[in-house]
Amino acid sequence: MRKFTAARHPETLADNPVAKTRILVVDDSRLQRRLLTGSLVKWGYEVIEAASGKEALQLCADNLPDLILSDWMMPGMTGLEFCRALRDLPGEQFAYFILLTSKKEKEEVAVGLHSGADDFLSKPVDNAELRARITAGERIINTQRQLCRSNQMIRDTLAELQGLYDSLDKDLLEAKKLQQSLLPERHRVFRGGTLSLLLRSSGHVGGDLVGFFEAGPRKLGLFGIDVSGHGISSALMTARLAGYLSASSPGQNVALIPDGEDSFVARPPAQAIQAINELVLNEMETEHYFTLMLAIVDLDSGLVQIAQAGHPHPVVRRRNGDIEQFGTGGFPVGLISGVSFQQFEVQMHPGDRLLILSDGFTECPDQTGQMLGEAGLEEIIASLGDMHDEAFLSGLLWKLSEFAGAIDFSDDLSGIMFQFNGDAPL
To answer: Which residue ranges does UniProt annotate as crossing the membrane (predicted)?
Structure first.
């Protein structure tokens, strides 16, 4: 291999601003190589030579030039075979390939183009035409280089984004653990009834929350919350709201009031929701609002006091299989100050089950987009028969996935099932 470089005189650089283009000349004739090389060096190009297609292929494998001038007819590996082998080399770099040939038939030219050649020059080579073809090739080379740089920038950006995504995904997994920790118990047995809870986010974290708290002697507080939207901001709001209905800090629980004897009793649910509404509007700077169901259960009598703030109607499945829905809907929390909320009562009897479910159930669509609705929910509840506690909630999810035709849901799902047992022994 021989390498030739033009002297960097000011007039040469001015004549050819792309002086660093590297050209490989391939010809079995030493004289033809010298003639081409002399012209190219004079024009300011860096030139290397190869006496055969095999030698040229090795040079390209080691360090691909920008442009190749190759004779077609050579012993051993022809210029056409060299071109095919060149295009099969691994990597994304591109070399502009000009075949030098005395062939002029259209069929043969088409074969050359199909083999990977970019251009042709007829022999004997005219210097003016050669320089014009090289200049045209340089424009394509520069475009290809820009494309490679752009592709590299895209790859670098994607790698950076993947790193950020992996970090965010890790944080979201931790956030999911923290949100699930807001529900430390999924099942509890009381003297008078059993309680089971369900919380399933459509993503890593969600805006649903369910829970319970002691609401005085033989009283149990239940709540279901569904914050508007999905994702991190909704999950952060549920964490804040969990403090307003805390089971571990009754002094901070808005649904409780002191009884004057170092203990706490239940505040009427409607008053509690009204207080929460004002707290949210005064203390939280957020565009989120939420629906809320708050219930106080008397574990001795089975009487349930309920206030509903936009949450789906509570459902009672009687011991005999009858299904009833209660409530008037109400206004969501966190939209307007001064809103009042209605309160109503539900009398439960031994064997009855109370369900408080988020709208992820009734608004779950099937594969045609048709929502389950309240009637569809009643059908599912009826189909579960005598299943109870956690098995009932698992069955509810299974039936919902059958309806939706999928195991993943577009909305968060949360629910409470309380079965009143009265004086039945534990």
So the answer is: none
